[in-house]
């Protein structure tokens, strides 16, 4: 992992070099960058294993080297923060003279520290650098199989059951078909092929796909069913967490009555009889011929569901694995004869799992070195590596080695998510942004860089599937890939706890088996009834903290202590509706958070903050606006929040701002007009009758030209001011697709045509008028 980490450090150092404010020959940062690049080449040339041995010979562990690199990153962040402060001062948002002077003095001191740290790192890694050999082609391949190898007969049998008379027998209860098999046997792929078959599509009014994961949480399943049935956007999933379960079930029942529906539940693990029967009872109200398709790796689940139609998937023959490997891995058909012996041996090592053959084929195709590439994968020492005990992880790690260094770090970050975690691409990219993984020397937008990395992971078969719900792309990592990522990740990447009873935690004593001092990414799962810890001893290096609780009281004092300790936090998630609760336990009451302490201003590196679902939170401190690096702020469901801080204009890095269901806010501050980096703004209240000095007005959209997707706007006032409508400058909102407008007060008397004419939107910008506001 050292080479990947150095890659991230290099990108951040290049940002300093590119900034004129920090160009100073005294520090020779560019020379230090060249040295780091040489170290990186040395690691790539030697391989992680040989490099680790070299370090150990000097009494240094890879973990210790990682700590040095993290420390360097922290210093780089301090330098870059000084640049932001100077930018704010120049924009008139801070006192310029004093800020510029302090920044120059601090930059000198901080750059000196950075230089010394890099020199110390050089002493650790001193050696003869070598040119690296490319581990991957820059071309990206993603090969879909042309047919269901070994599964076509099963598919035909299941479709015959669905089309048969017995499946439409109204005298019996709703029919259930179960596909059972171990991980990697193609259950999900088979189920998707069935759901998209033209014969199946023809007979069903609704086909609903739900990723269940191990916990059979009826609330989570119901919300995803509604999302599919009503064609809602994925953001609505968070809002539906606030709806009672029975209301959700009634809503589903109304949607499926007198319709034929097929519900596909993928990846059912632990089985809950009551929830299962409740779900079946709802779908009993559909038309005769409706059914439920289930995939599971647990034979006990298949037996408990008492289905008459159970299809067991076994391992494939070595011959079929070779056919998959040949189709996916061969770039040149003329090489088939030359690589057949090698290919058949590789197929044998896939041990009958089609997923293993597919991933290995992707890796070989991406390597693209002809016969030499096939031979490399057969003889590579990783097959015998003691670091990765499972043969499947060995195959996957070969694919991992083919990823660009920057993408490897994005993949390894996934280890903080639990197995079967489903996440939107937008949120995943925001996580990567928060950790600093998406900076690039080519000045490419971070979102575009994230899109590039996401497609690269998809091309390497890292995702079990990607689905699009209402325009939002969501993905789930294959469980076997997740195992591999965790085995390749450093010990300190993630620590999860099923329960935390004590109020004071000490990271160094949580476990006797693994020393976790210097933990950087922490998902803290707190048992119901336990309080948020008043002190987290050893949390000084935390970069990520996610608190997953059920009804946990988070006091202001506890947060104040956390903010004073964890100065390097990049991501802080204290939300109810972020998706973590759906993975770790039944739906229920979220965190009880009523105050954010002023000490939050000390988190100068914070880039992602979610307080979503904090229903009792009434105010936010003005010091929150000192978080100049904040990129994402999620206040979804903070229904008691009365107002936003007046200094919002200082959040110049803010790109994502979510205020769904913040119903107590009556106006938005003027400073939002300064947030020119904003890409997503879910809701905003705008005064339309004049340009107010303190409140956000219609004309304040003028400079928000990076907005994407859609935005909801409540227009308030007596009438539409023509000058404000023109100043809104909708013609320059090239990436904005839709504006939903709610008219409030006297302005509601205006004709919608008059308002639309005043706004004069471009033809490709859809203006909708809605009678509700959330």
From TrEMBL:
Write down the SUPFAM superfamilies for this protein, in alphabetical order: L domain-like, P-loop containing nucleoside triphosphate hydrolases
Per the database record, which ranges form the Disease resistance protein winged helix domain?
A: 416-483
GO process terms (BP)? defense response
Q: Which GO terms describe its molecular function?
A: ADP binding
Which domain of life, per UniProt?
Answer: Eukaryota
Query: Which intervals hold domain NB-ARC?
Result: 171-330
Where is each Disease resistance R13L4/SHOC-2-like LRR domain found? 598-743
Cite the InterPro entries for this sequence. LRR_dom_sf (IPR032675), LRR_R13L4/SHOC2-like (IPR055414), NB-ARC (IPR002182), P-loop_NTPase (IPR027417), WH-like_DNA-bd_sf (IPR036388), WHD_DRP (IPR058922)
> Mind listing the UniProt keywords for this protein, alphabetically?
Plant defense, Repeat
What is this protein's record name? AAA+ ATPase domain-containing protein
Species of origin reads Gossypium klotzschianum
